[in-house]
Design a protein that fits this description.
Layout: E1 18-23, H1 27-38, E2 43-49, H2 53-63, E3 67-68, H3 72-77, E4 83-86, H4 93-102, E5 106-109, H5 117-129, E6 135-137, H6 147-155, E7 162-170, H7 187-190, H8 197-208, E8 214-220, E9 225-227, E10 234-236, E11 242-248, E12 254-260, E13 269-275, E14 278-283, E15 288-293, E16 300-301, H9 314-324, H10 333-351, E17 357-358
Parallel strand pairs: 1-2, 1-4, 2-3, 4-5, 5-6, 7-12
Antiparallel strand pairs: 7-13, 8-11, 8-17, 9-10, 11-12, 13-14, 14-15, 15-16
Length: 359
């Protein structure tokens, strides 16, 4: 048996072998992470642990992975593994991250960072005990091609003083009372994460680099129990199927966010930034950025040069940080704490009947 390889930041050998272990091989892991890692020279995915031995074997066979493991704890302790990719639902992110770091492994974990702020804070604390190990959260991907343009327009005060940040994402996935329960509705698996709120708030925070000072929120569960897809039982739904949050920034700007799983018809999927001199709108459904001036009733599409379109580089970024010590920006644990603090404040406000909460 070998020992986990360690890399000195700045080393020039781009082909130094890095051996990856996968905990949780759901759709995103199979579609994005596994092909992403396997396309990088000198990187191999050597071990996988999914929810069952059978599903682990299917993934191993499909992607040519040499070994499977039935217990994620054994995977993180495996001396042949250098880095761990955690692709599970949020319920395991904290435990697996902490165990992996204590076993000397670099960690890339799926978003959301954790089930709640306390778990996220424990992840950050343990990561600081091991500064030579890379820790990264899979970033919110929808805006990656637009981030550079939006951030520059805000920095240049192209919109004037920011007045409103309006975030809307709706769908009909929970409109039917007979729609099966998903992990996003199970508090044991998802914690305080509600619908897609966290991923969109992460984007807003990436642009503004500041959080609201306070938030009020309301939420509703319209169907209290739903059929579980893997059994004959019905599960209790405790995570809202609709949530609205109102935040206030220190400079007086407002955050208006609405997320719904019970809206039929054409879904809405956008972020608007309204300023004293104009507005920006990203339509995530069409993947286009629009600008409008004060008083205008029409929008003008904002061109996004190919050279600033970042696209998906998650696995390459992770490996680059391991090999060269490149700072993690998309997304580091400090930023994860930021969006988890907002998620926590929203959850507390809903629980308290809409009472104002500090972020």
């Amino acid at each position: 048996m070998g020992i986990p390889l360690r890399f000195t930041p700045g080393m020039a050998d781009q082909n130094r072998p890095i051996r990856i272990g996968i905990i949780g091989a759901g759709k995103n892991t199979r579609v994005m992470h596994l092909p992403g890692f396997q396309s990088i020279e000198g990187v191999s995915v050597d071990l996988v642990c999914n929810r069952s031995e059978a599903s682990s074997r299917r993934v191993a066979d499909e992607f040519g992975i040499a070994r499977i493991e039935s217990d994620w704890r054994k995977l993180v302790a495996d001396p042949e593994i250098d880095a761990v990719m955690i692709g599970t639902w949020p319920y395991l992110h904290a435990d697996a991250t902490i165990a992996a770091l204590r076993s000397g492994k670099h960690v890339l974990t799926e978003a959301r960072m954790a089930c709640n702020l306390g778990e996220a804070e424990s992840m950050l604390a343990i990561s600081r005990e091991f500064p030579d190990l890379i820790t990264q959260i899979v970033p919110a991907p929808m805006s990656l091609d637009f981030d550079a343009v939006v951030i520059k327009l805000l920095a240049d005060k192209a919109l004037g003083d920011l007045r409103e940040v309006c975030v809307t994402h709706t769908g009909s996935q929970f409109a039917s009372a007979e729609a099966p329960m998903t992990w996003r509705q199970d508090a044991e698996l998802s914690g305080h994460n509600v619908l897609t709120m966290g991923i969109y708030y992460e984007i807003v925070r990436r642009w503004l680099r500041v959080d609201p000072v306070q938030v009020v929120a309301t939420g509703a569960v319209f169907t209290r129990t739903r059929p579980r897809p893997e059994s004959d039982e019905r599960g209790e739904v405790s995570i809202p199927e609709s949530v609205t949050a109102l935040g206030e920034y220190a400079d007086g700007a407002r955050l208006v966010a609405h997320f719904s799983g019970v809206e039929n018809g054409l879904s809405r999927n956008e972020i608007r930034l309204n300023g004293s001199e104009g507005s920006l709108r990203i339509d995530f459904s069409t993947k286009r950025l629009y600008r409008s001036n004060n008083g205008a009733t029409e929008e003008i599409e904002v061109p996004v040069p190919e050279k600033v379109r970042r696209g998906w580089r998650v696995e390459a970024d992770f490996i680059d940080s391991i090999r060269n010590g490149t700072p993690v920006t998309l997304t580091n644990f400090e930023d994860g704490i930021g969006y988890m603090a907002f998620t926590e404040a929203v959850a507390k406000s809903i629980e308290a009947g809409g009472a104002t909460q500090k972020v």
